[in-house]
Amino acid sequence: MEQSIELGAIISIAKRRYALFVIPAAVVFVLAGLLAYFMPRSYESKAVILIEAQRIPTELASSTVTASPRERINLIEQRLLARDNLLEIADKYSLYKEDGADPSPTTIVDNMRKAIVIDQIDVARQSRRNTEIVGFNVSFQYPSATMSARVANELVTSILSQNLETRLARAAETSDFFEQQLQDLEAKLLGLESKKASFKRDNEEVLPETLPTRREELSEINVQIGEIDLELSIVEQGGNGAAGEEAAIAQQLTYRLQSQQLNYDSFVARRDLLGPLAEKGYVSKKTMSDLDRQITQTEIEIASIRSQMLQHGVTVDPAARSDVLKNQRDALQSSAQRLKESISLTPAVEVELAAMEREYENLRAEFMHTKAKLTDAQIGERLEQDRQAERFEILEQATVPEAPTKPNRLKIMLGGAFGAVVAGLGVALLVEMLDTSIRTARDLERHLQLRPIAIIPYVVTSKERWRRRRVRFYQVVVFVTLLTAVFALLDHYYLPLDLFVERIQTKIGAQFPGVLQL
Questions:
Q1: To which H or E segment does residue 40 belong?
Q2: How many CA atoms lie within 13 A of 488 on its CB side?
Q3: What does the pLDDT read at residue 362?
Q4: What spatial distance separates the first Cα and last Cα of the chain, rounded to whole Å?
Q5: Exposed e or buried b for every residue in 370-400, given b needs 16+ CB within 10 A?
Q6: 315-350 burial string, b = 16+ CB within 10 Å, else e?
């Protein structure tokens, strides 16, 4: 059957079970105080690092390090929390080796990773999701206040050094990459230029640029062949009379002079055309020497013909003359055939040269583009070297903390007080629920299903009153002693009482303005 609890019954239970409430509550509160007292202190030292934007406008010069500050901070954090780096810092400052302790490297690394905290400072740009990192906090917790500040500053120095080294390394890698690309392209261009020069030397007689000259030379040879044919016909027709023979010889000399003059003009024109190409190496020296020799021979031949014409009557054997003319015609026809063959091969050579030229232009364009990128990369590297790009600057140096951050003794004591009340109430209610004693008429009626005729009140003697007063006095003394001990602990180990009261008043005034003035 469930018990119906009334106010009077609650007061009666409190009077009977106050000892069961006070003792567990006092034990829990004392344990909470001992826990707050004996827990090791931990001091936190914090430094603030600001991310400064690039000083030179990005439109004029941009850095080659394109990673966002968030990514770089995360990368630096991973490197900072690396096992070897943490063990090096711990060995430098002899961390976690107080009182002769010798923890394992794994324990040291785990403790340092728990003690190091890096919080990024961001601001909202347009919305909460679109944030920009403007800096970050670096903090370190340690039982020694001085050591926490020293290690925090060591972490800051390591972060600044890693950021600088990382940015310089990335900028240098970018410059080296484009420089190597530029060297490769330059080697390809030189190789292609050498290939073009060799190809032109091997095909100098069929190059596209000499095509007009060869066509003109072919036309001149055809004219010379026609003149020789005409001269042959005159020789063959005028062989029976002396006068006719002399006239034929004079006419032949005239034709020869005209033919040699045309050859001389052709050789000189070709020499003038091939001269610039020979200076660039596209035409061999042998070809030029042959042209010079042909010009000299033509000049001698012209002088000889002119001297013959001055003699007025030269006798020439018509048969021999005919053989000479036929040999000249055969030589000219052979030269004409070679020119026709070279002219027919020129289109194929022109196609191959055009392909080489396109490849050369593409490589040259790529070379110029890579050179421009290399210039940008070198500018970015110079920005990093001069520290003109984005950089980390210390906004607040880590200082020695004045008070420990852990443990929070006030919270522990308040939690202990709450736990003490709960423990006392729990023990008192549990004992009351397990107790089946009959103390009131309601208890008698509930257990025996009988209603009492009359109720005789309990008569308290003077001895019992005196005993109760003594017990209450002892309880008051114990309570006052505990309260005094609590205040003494607060004043000695946490904060002087006047400052503690002032801090509480400040917090109350901040939460409820105007209350303290009332």
A1: none
A2: 6
A3: 92
A4: 51
A5: beebbebbbbbbebbeeeebbbbebeeebee
A6: ebebeebeebbeebbeebeeebeebeebeeebeebe
Using CA of residue 312, residue 317, residue 318, residue 322, what is the dihedral sign?
A: negative
Two structure tokens written together for 436: 């089946």
How many residues in total does the chain contain? 518
> Rounded to the nearest 10 degrees, how much is the dihedral formed by the CA atoms of 379, 381, 385, 390?
90
Q: How far apart are CA 178 and CA 172, in angstroms?
A: 10
- What's the CA gap between 270 and 214, in Å, rounded? 9
Helix and strand tally (H, E) in the chain? 14, 4
The pTM (predicted TM-score) of the whole model is 0.53
CA distance 186 to 469: 108
The side-by-side arrangement of strands in the sheet containing 131-142 is: 116-124, 131-142, 43-52, 391-396
Q: Burial, 407: exposed, middle or buried (Cβ in 10 Å; 0-12, 13-18, 19+)? A: middle
pLDDT in tens, 216-231: 888 888 888 887 777 7
Question: Per-residue pLDDT tens for 493-511?
Answer: 666 777 777 777 776 665 5
